[in-house]
Specification:
The protein is 38% helix and 19% strand. It has helices at 15-25, 42-51, 76-81, 100-111, 128-139, 152-159, 174-181, 206-210, 228-235, 244-259, 265-276; strands at 2-7, 32-36, 54-59, 73-74, 86-90, 93-97, 120-124, 144-148, 167-170, 186-189, 216-219, 239-241. It has a six-stranded mixed β-sheet with strand order 2-1-3-5-6-4, with helices on both faces. Strands 9-8-7-10-11-12 form a six-stranded parallel β-sheet, with helices on both faces.
Length: 281
């Protein structure tokens, strides 16, 4: 049995580090490696993986959506998002899951101390990560989630996937962000704004001043560890959280799928977090 993470590029992925730490904590000698799979090569990879002892794999760009029609079964949550990031071989069949949303909710609860239930949330972005997180927040009981995107039609398309009706599309203008922030206990950035290497930046951060004093700001970006958004939010006394706890928690959920059994999630998360900090043996 072996596990992998596939993508292109993928050799920079932290998944092998995280999973190696968790598997070591469990006393399991199961290799987990990064494997470059280019766009268009998924059918060949799935055949190769089945023949070469790959019991499961994580998927990153550009494969999260392209895998959907190639798998034998799709978990309902992944079907709703339209993307998978975890695939397991069960009874000779490839089964797809999405752990991004669950990882985000777990990070909010455990690392920011905020339960989404009953909250009004402003969420920035309408891409794949935004969709997974927004739908998970809705399922977790958020009262209202404003999905803000520069292209309003993309926000509208995302919101249409929520059967609970908690998602509301909005534009990305400064005025709109300020108005929605006033009503929100949590702001979640699912865009690439502030990511290292991204040339684009927020036009202004005035919406942070509109957030209530007890609000939190969650940026899915973890490189750099503190984006300008989080730096400015922290300086304003707001609670802040970067994307590392989400990365850790979604890896824990993925490993549960790979092993097909529940794990001691706090212990697994601690082992993975220690590995990220360079403390794991």
């Amino acid at each position: 049995m072996r596990l992998q993470v596939i993508g292109d590029p993928v050799l920079h992925s932290k998944s092998p580090l995280l999973h190696a730490a968790m598997l070591a904590e469990l006393g399991l000698d199961i290799p987990y490696t990064a494997h470059v799979v280019r766009r268009g090569e998924l059918p060949q990879y799935l055949s190769w993986a089945k023949e070469n002892g790959v019991a499961g794999f994580n998927a990153t760009m550009p494969h999260k959506e392209d895998l959907i029609p190639l798998l034998d079964e799709i978990h309902p949550a992944a079907q709703a998002v339209g993307a998978v990031n975890t695939v397991c071989l069960r009874g000779g069949k490839w089964v797809g899951f999405n752990t991004d949303g669950g990882g985000a909710v777990a990070a909010l609860r455990e690392d920011l101390g905020m339960d989404p239930a009953g909250l009004t949330i402003t969420l920035l972005g309408a891409g794949g990560a935004a969709k997974a997180v927004a739908l998970a927040l809705s399922q977790a009981g958020a009262e209202r989630i404003f999905v803000c995107n520069r292209t309003l039609s993309r926000a509208e398309a995302l919101c249409a996937h929520d059967p609970l009706g908690h998602l509301v599309p909005a534009d990305f203008s400064s005025g709109t962000l300020r108005r929605l922030a006033e009503r929100s206990r949590l702001l979640v950035n699912c865009t690439s704004l502030g990511m290292e290497g991204c040339p684009d930046r927020f036009e202004d951060f005035g919406f942070l001043d509109a957030l209530p004093a007890n609000a939190g700001v969650f940026d899915l970006i973890y490189h750099p560890a503190e984006t300008e958004l989080l730096d400015r939010a922290r300086r304003r006394g707001l609670g802040t959280l970067n994307g590392l706890p989400m990365l850790v928690n979604q890896a824990v959920l993925a490993l549960e799928h790979f092993l097909d059994r529940p794990l001691d999630r706090p212990a697994m998360a601690a082992a993975a977090a220690s590995a990220l900090e360079g403390k794991h043996p």
